[in-house]
């Protein structure tokens, strides 16, 4: 009875794929595993089932999802994986954090095939160039309107697939001319890059920045998603991780202003230029496909080589 309880518990929390594993292990146990008093050895079955489960982490999730943070540039990178095919993507990988990202994917038996940039970043170098060197099948992706070189260019309304997962691409210009928001409608998730930050939004003072356009992008594209959709930003500077459409429509201090006041507010924002802008822009206009020296500086390259 106790054993049956444990089995039921596993099924309740792990659902479909693990139930399939369980069937096959029970089958083999039935034929040759019995306890001393002749009963079926279900305990042994359970142990083997747990091992099977550990082999493919997160197989019970409808989409595999991890939010990862770079504490130097306050950037979020997102790993998304298809639980059935193990195909995976990274949204906004950071050059210096690529080894971390690849290791996590390997541990989860995911095959990263695409790196999607939400826009041409000004504050850090994208990891998509380095990922192309490390992973043979990997392709860089960005909007066509960004003007950046990439393997795949996306336009407003495009649908982008990895494994059995589908992403809807929404053009959301304003922070930069080529900003894209990536939506997973089936999972009620949207990745807004720097168009919308939690209780804030991206600056609009360079790279074809346009506060009027940003206001329209947010209200017409992001805020017309269902209220319960989770929004995941490109950065957070205050320790927040995610928000929802409903929360931002109600509490975002910038976007709840009327358009005229928003434009004035953005004009007066007066932020210092990002420290790495001179390095980041040329590198990101090629999705990071430039020499290590250009990204790190020649002294840093030598010290990196010493570390490996
Ligand atoms: N201090 C950082 C840059 C901070 C910054 O400007 N962030 C951008 C997004 S990255 S271009 C932004 O839009 N911020 C909006 C805001 O209200 O903070 C650095 O030197 O890199």
Automatic annotation (TrEMBL):
Domain Metallo-beta-lactamase positions: 74-235
Keyword Metal-binding on entry: yes
UniProt superkingdom: Eukaryota
Keywords from the UniProt entry: Metal-binding
Stored InterPro entries: Metallo-B-lactamas (IPR001279), Mito_Persulfide_Diox (IPR051682), POD-like_MBL-fold (IPR044528), RibonucZ/Hydroxyglut_hydro (IPR036866)
Keyword presence, Metal-binding: yes
Pfam families xrefs: Lactamase_B (PF00753)
Entry protein name: Metallo-beta-lactamase domain-containing protein
Organism this protein belongs to: Clavelina lepadiformis (Light-bulb sea squirt)
């Amino acid at each position: 009875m106790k054993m049956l309880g444990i089995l039921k518990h596993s099924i309740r929390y792990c659902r479909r794929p693990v139930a399939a594993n369980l069937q096959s292990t029970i089958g083999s146990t039935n034929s040759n595993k019995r306890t001393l008093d002749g009963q079926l050895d279900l305990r042994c079955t359970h142990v083997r089932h747990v091992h099977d489960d550990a082999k493919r982490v997160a197989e019970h999730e409808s989409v595999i999802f991890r939010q990862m943070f770079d504490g130097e540039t306050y950037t979020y990178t997102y790993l998304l994986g298809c639980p059935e095919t193990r195909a995976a993507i990274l949204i906004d990988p950071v050059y210096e954090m690529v080894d971390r990202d690849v290791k996590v994917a390997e541990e989860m038996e995911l095959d990263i095939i695409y790196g999607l940039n939400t826009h041409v970043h000004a504050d850090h170098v994208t990891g998509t160039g380095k990922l192309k060197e490390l992973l043979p099948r990997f392709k860089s992706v960005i909007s066509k309107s960004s003007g950046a070189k990439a393997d795949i260019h996306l336009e407003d309304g495009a649908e982008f697939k990895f494994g059995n997962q589908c992403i809807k691409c929404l053009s959301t210009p304003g922070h930069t001319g080529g900003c894209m928001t990536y939506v997973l409608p089936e999972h009620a998730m949207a990745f807004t890059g720097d168009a919308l930050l939690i209780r804030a939004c991206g600056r609009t003072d360079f790279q074809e920045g346009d506060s009027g356009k940003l206001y329209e992008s947010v209200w017409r594209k992001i805020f017309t998603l269902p209220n319960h959709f989770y929004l995941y930003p490109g950065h957070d500077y205050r320790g927040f991780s995610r928000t929802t459409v409903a929360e931002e429509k109600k509490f975002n201090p910038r976007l709840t202003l009327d358009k005229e006041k928003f434009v004035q507010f953005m004009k007066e924002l007066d932020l210092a230029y990002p420290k790495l802008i001179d390095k980041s822009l040329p590198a990101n206009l090629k999705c990071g496909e430039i020499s290590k020296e250009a990204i790190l500086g020649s002294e840093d390259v030598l010290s990196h080589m010493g570390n490996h």
